[in-house]
Fold these 2 entries.
Entry 1:
Amino acid sequence: MKQIIVVGNGMVGYKFCEKFVAEQGSEEFKITVFGEEPRPAYDRVHLSEYFENQDAKALEMAPASWYAEHNVDLITGERVSDINRASKTITTAKDREFKYDYLVLATGSSPFVPPIKGVEKEGVFVYRTIEDLEGMLAYAAKLNAEKPNAKAAVLGGGLLGLEAGKAVMDMGLEPHIVEFAPKLMPRQLDSRSSQVLKLKLESIGLNIHLSKATNQILGEKAITGMEFGEDDMLEVDMLIISAGIRPRDELGRASGLEVGVRGGIVVNNKMLTSDENIYAIGEIALYNQMIYGLVAPGYEMAEIAVKQILGHKEHIMPESIDMSTKLKLIGVDVASFGEPFMPAAKGHSIIFENKTQHLYKRINVSLDGKELLGGILVGDAADYNMLHQVYLNGMAIPEDPSQLILPASEGGSSFGSVLDLPDTAQVCSCESVSKGDICSSITEGDCNNLGDVVTKTKATSGCGGCKPMVVDLVNETLKSLGKEVKETVCEHFNFSRQELYDLVKVNKVADYDEALNLFGEGNGCEVCKPLLASIFATITMETPNRQPEIQDTNDRFLANIQRNGTYSVVPRVAGGEITPQQLITIGEVAKKYDLYTKITGGQRIDLFGAQIHELPLIWKELIDAGFESGHAYGKSLRTVKSCVGSTWCRYGMHESVTFAIEVENRYRGLRSPHKLKGGVSGCIRECAEARGKDFGLIAVEGGWNLYVCGNGGATPKHAVLLAEQLDDKTVIKYLDRFLMYYIRTAGPLVRTAPWLEKLDGGIDYLKKIVIEDTLGIAEELENEMQGLVNKYECEWKQAIENPEMMKRFKHFVNSEDTDDNLVFVPMREQKMPKQWA
Amino acid sequence: MQDILSQYESVSKEAVKEWFKVGKTEDFPENSGACIKYKTKQIAVYNFVRTGKWYATQNLCPHKMEMVLSLGMIGDKDGIPKVACPMHKKNFSLEDGSNLGGEDLKIATYPVKIEEGNVYIGFSD
């Protein structure tokens, strides 16, 4: 059996063992791994978590038992002191000798301690191992006991230094960061982003000192301060040095392996050193004249060494190594990818900066604007994973690349689906897991949820930065298979609204009961009943009078239920145009039935406080005077609001009232997944607020501009332009197509704006369907809509003319009494329901 | 206000002192609720045609004290027959009156019997 000796049991040394024993053919090798520290390998990336819980076990890469279970000999607390290349043996500090066939050096690095006078004083620490942290904790506890407001400084404002700054805060000391360069994280950030980060860190209590060269550590025995220059000093009681790393290449150096000028053991793309039996991986390996201080390249090197030793010679290290990184520093997102700094000759930068919110985003794109070259994110790195993938895979970017980083409210678009990524896209770089690996573990493997996928692929188990993307991928993949995350209607129907719509239509289902018998189970509920009622209405234009038992209460009584269980009545006032005689009629009815009256937001009049038995009486009078139902109670067309337009307005360009009335009367009574509102403005002053509606028309030179998918309400949204300068006929044609397509495909209770947001391809796709008719369904949509328009009848007229239908407008079955619990109190010359509590 | 609520207490079949006739079965809408009056009480009666079962509860929703439960939609949740209040969609079991959303709200239930096409509700007062 061949012997492999791994020197160093850090993250990369461990990863080598893990990857090796997982390979076929590994059983012919025996691995012995030496660790100088007293414990098995732990996760140094998340070292600062030790300050929160002091749980060293939680940081372990694998428990000590793992090594035994996998036939790996782990020897901790014993440093390898010598390599004898001629005899292929190593000697340890305990003077024991071991023979090897292959030697893997994974000794990592040690903190660089600059040669500053006084650096040996008590209270000066480095930040690397759990032992270092334990020393700091003990010292900090002593300081806290001796003096209040003790201060600690970190020398070095790089990535690790800021981590150490958090550690200082956690220890209850006043934190200071001292950096030689004029900016924080000089390797990852440009000056502006560093400024933003500095502001943010200062806002949470870190004191930051830039451009400070430390001359001397002050103090007798223990540190009392740092001196930067004459009369420039900082009093501190403790110092943590985090001024970079130096590869621990002394073993290689002593045994004559080729090393770099500034340290590191030289390796080729097979991770082989100048000795054909010795590999070097991780932070001691000098590859392409570079030391890579990140975990992902270290893991990749481990993988290459494993493959090479097992004879899979085709596996070699890529020429360029991605140094993109994302981390959370003291709760602040910081990320940089690709080329964060880019010479102006190579491309253009787009920068979004908001110091008030401590936000900074920069992307670098090629001169032709087609390629993403790199970028920096500070404060909000939510887009990092997607941007990183776009960069890695050379994916197409929007014509206006600023959309990649602009806030959504400023017209920035979120990315498409994660499923658009190529299968080869590396999602988890620590564990080299591609999008294809993740998706196929579900589509072809037997993974059914996030946990399964993580166990199977190991994705997210390294730095964890890819987690949001893995979650999205798992959900989207499950969704695409119709598993679990499927958006079904309710427990009674295992279908989406669109599926049910098709099923009912194709099978010519007669009523709710038949639908439940054919496609559902149980006895229905308040979700599926009105949903099917809406589907029946949009297929056959049936009114709620046919199946009152499946209607929401409002539709069942053709009125809006209000706070005390009474109802309100809204007659249609198309376009908001009303005659004095109609106003008088409404006034008389309101007076007769003692109803509270108010003008609605949709230019009509609402009459409140009617009891169920009064509804038909009220409607009889309104219908006799020429009114009809306003459908204010339904998930249906409500109003088409208008401004007065060219008939009266001196600015008006077209007759907005006339057209609003035509449009409202065309779609009156139309049931839809949610309520529908329209607006028509006579000029661009937009007095009808048409862009706040599901569909809006604005008069312009040469016709109407048609906007769709806006709304007011809880999540206001402006409607977006669908087509320009249309004549009346084309407006109707496009509206027919748009509305019918929405009604067919939207989920239950989804208004047009969120529907469009979820529509693949967005407004451009909608334009293709409505204007270009790429699906070839435009005529069908128009015909369906015309069919519904032709079948319209006023459901209130229908109800009051049919005694059978009238039976439900009664408070008690067994008594002519009315509800005696209603109490009204006066309010501004009208009335309102008495408050209960 | 509490007076209105306190007059509603569940009645078990065994505790019924009076079976009060509230109408013929055809007076009650199918797969829906309707309201009847008994002394000062308002009782919602539900007619499940699919299962052939009848239920009765107080008409008062204890959430906002509105006389509206008979106007709510009926159905079931995990096999338990229920009514959804039309005001805020609170779901109540028609078997024991408990709130199916886990809230501390409860409605009183009353036994129903059908004899010779007549609907009777059982009361203990």
Entry 2:
Amino acid sequence: MIGDVFVQHALVAGTAIAIACGLVGWFAVLRAQVFAADAMSHFAFTGAVAGVAIAIDPRAGVFAVTFACALLLAALGGRSRVDDVTIGVAITWVLGLGVLALSIVATGPAGGSGVTAANALFGTILGLNTAQTQLAVVIALAICLVMVVIARPLLFASLDAVVARARGVPVGVLGMVFLIALAAVAAEATQAVGALLLLGLVAAPAGAAHRLTARPYLGMALAAAIGVGSVWLGLWIATLAPSVPPSSAIVAVAAVIFFAAHVPARAQRAVRAPAARWGTRRRVGAGATRTD
Amino acid sequence: MTAPTLSWNPLWDLRQLLAYPFMVQALEAGTIAAVLSGVLGWYMILRRQTFAGHTLSTMSFPGAAAGALIALPAALGYYAACIIAAVAMARRPDAHDSGGGLQSARIGTIGAVGLAAGFVLLSLSNSILGGLDDLLFGSFLGITPAQVVTLGVVAVAVLATLAVIGRPLLFVSLDPEAARALGVPVRALEVAFLLMLGLTVAATTQITGALLVFALLVSPPAAAQRVAARPVVSMVLSVVFAIVVIWCALIAAYFTTYPLGFYTTTFAFALYVAALVGRAAVPALRREAAA
């Protein structure tokens, strides 16, 4: 299976994308901006279809539309984080434009809007050529680099925006840079797992990492590692069972890990709970003696 | 059938509009869907559950794909998938999840799993790829009278339930801590609301398509809440806005070649922007008039 050149490309590009998704996703969960990530994936869909509609490279369309929408969201959000109503309204309208583009594709010379839509929505990770793979890796590396550089101040700004602002951290600029990183990840992942399954690589590994550890840097590394594991396992499953689309297999693995991460968290709580109860009783007892 | 053209005579236009039964059914179904999503969307915006509503709306895709695979009506698949997803989302939140990040990660994961499952089912049945666009973006051509009746029954059931629990739900949405302290069953109300939202989305999807339910569920209530502060007034406005949007979109889609989804979302967005502008402009004008 490793001998197949498309599988090699998928492994290389998928690994790079999963690492970028894990890092950005960890912050998206911390900042409760998973909905914004979801929005980006829908913008990416419109971008892909619009690119086909006006006969340019779909990837150029994806990046152009996603970045433009990210800047728009950042502008609408102003100094604070964008609220979910604004995101909801924006998603709807941009998708509506995507529908318009899709109908133009359908009536155009190329035809077959169903296939265009399906590719944009569900990805074609097993169809990447060498140039596309290289581009995916370069972009993923760039996103990772940006995230590593802004990780510390962004962590501060995410946990306590007021104190961070008072200490001179540029909270607004960081929020905007983060939204743009989110847009880049969405545009990037759209090629691999497709617009609709992006959340499988952004939300699920990062959510699992947040459940498993409260330590920031360990959590980021864990999110990236879970993402990479999901991609590898998913691709392996897809090569074993050809009727299962690779993107679905990847998402399924990531989701299983996310829900399985419940178990250690609950076990930890079960271990801690009796101790906590004991502590309360003692405190109550101490209070009682004091009133005596 | 000659392509309908818009004239300057409104009566003639209306007769053209109502000439075909499918269009009458589309208007009926659109109106019911608009009333339902105007009310439920109003609560959804108030409760900041836009993401949950959005994810529920995408669940109709695996529902329809599953229905196609085992040769059941798509509508049945819609309702089943939306209810399953609503139950999965209604789990108790994690203990240390203060900002809601983990809850949103769970919603996102449920959404991704549902869509992935839909894609697997689609490739297994290998039949409705051509219908993917209609599934995701809606079509008003194929609405049957039976569908309208089902939609009406669901709408009556949901609105009747809401008439009973509407007031406590409003209380819980505005101040959950105080509601819990006064003995209001907060958890039960939250779960009931998610289930009703799931039903609404499943019903509306049949008209607007999975990805554009939001045009009716978010923009009209959001615009209404910007314009009016009193709950009853803004809820009524929300329903009116939703009806106006779907009627204008149906009429525009009927007389032109562009898809219904584009018009629905564009009119809804224009309405929201108008509400924002109006909200900013009216106090300024009043100040000017007073000066």
